[in-house]
Design a protein that fits this description.
Largest sheet: 8 strands, mixed
CATH superfamily of the largest domain: NAD(P)-binding Rossmann-like Domain
Shape: globular
Structural class: alpha/beta
Number of helices: 15
Distance between the termini: 46 Å
Number of strands: 8
Length: about 325
């Protein structure tokens, strides 16, 4: 890998643009790959992406292009498309171009129908690629504007993971290397589901005490599920676990929290998923998380409640009553 790493960022939405900006500020030579000619022109000619992050000027180290031509010459790739679109995006790239290539997976979700994590989707599409996972408490608009942010990057090869962390790190973007890809991926997917739950509580005006209770019990629930399916419990105490869960469950800048808030406030699913609606990945991950928990034999009442809310089987008042009348249990003991 060269001193000035050549990075391809696949996906020119808000998060892809933000990570391209962060990588360029870290000293990388960045190619941002997208599909919308208007986005590509704006990045190259106006140094901004008015469709996703209009108030953040884009560094000169970023150039944009349609498609992924030349990707095989990259030192590493950031795949920054929604979890449900990852397989299609990878299908447009030759597996040979990704053979031996470090691919940093930046989506937070579980694939519908297969229950696969992003790294497993990559393994199916390009078996010879070298997967890594980036996750943690981060809003695209803040990263793009240079607000201080710290995230986790996880990979099986310790030296490679630390090297890529070094290349992506910049004056306001800090990466902590880790080895537990399973735990990092699951935490990133599950926190979106729990953000819907916390948002619904807030939108229904049930109070900050109720939201904090749901957040704490969500962490306990997530810890049980992640440990049961192969993640490491200590991963959840870090940025990809508690850090991201806390951010996503407390701010309407989180699309999943906002989605839940609107449901709790009385909007319908049809109103929230119509044309032009923002993607709330937790809506897609919730039924997958429920199936994963059922398969593992883990009790997940909050995930069950989110699914009931999304599917219209209950309103927020009914779900709160259900959760509050569950058998009493002991809290965490040391």
């Amino acid at each position: 890998m060269t001193a000035k790493a050549k990075v391809y960022v696949v996906g020119a939405g808000a998060w892809g643009t933000a990570l391209a900006q962060a990588a360029a500020l870290g000293g990388c030579d960045v190619t941002l790959c997208g599909r919308n000619p208007a986005v590509i022109s704006a990045v190259n000619d106006e140094r901004r992406n008015p469709f996703y992050i209009s108030d953040a000027p884009i560094a000169e180290g970023v150039s944009a292009q349609i498609g992924t031509g030349g990707l095989g010459a990259a030192d590493f790739v950031l795949l920054v498309v929604p979890a449900q679109e990852s397989r299609n995006a990878l299908g447009e790239i030759s597996p040979q171009a990704l053979a031996g290539m470090p691919v940093v997976l930046c989506a937070k979700g579980l694939e519908k129908g297969t229950m696969l994590r992003p790294s497993q989707v990559l393994q199916a599409a390009a078996p010879q690629a070298n997967p890594l996972v980036l996750s943690g408490p981060s809003f695209a608009s803040e990263v793009a504007r240079g607000k201080p942010t710290a995230v986790t990057i996880a990979g099986e090869d310790e030296a490679l993971t630390e090297l890529i962390a070094h290349h992506l790190a910049g004056p306001t973007f800090r990466l902590y290397a880790a080895g537990d890809m399973t735990g990092v991926e699951l935490a990133g997917a599950l926190k979106n589901v729990y953000a819907i739950a916390c948002g619904a509580v807030q939108g229904a005006d049930l109070g900050l005490s109720a939201r904090s209770s749901v957040l704490a019990r969500a962490f306990a629930e997530m810890s049980r599920l992640v440990a049961e399916v192969g993640g490491k419990p200590q991963t959840l105490t870090g940025l990809a676990g508690l850090g991201d869960l806390t951010l996503s469950c407390t701010s309407r800048e989180s699309r999943n929290f906002d989605f839940g808030w609107r449901l709790g406030a009385g909007q319908t699913l049809a109103e929230l998923t119509g044309e032009g609606a923002k993607l709330a990945e937790g809506r897609h991950s919730a039924p997958v998380a429920k199936a994963l928990a059922n398969e593992a034999g883990v009790d997940v009442p909050i995930i069950d409640a989110v699914n009931a809310l999304i599917e219209g089987h209950s309103d927020i008042a009914g779900l709160v009553e259900m959760l509050m009348t569950r058998p009493l249990k002991r809290d965490v003991e040391i």
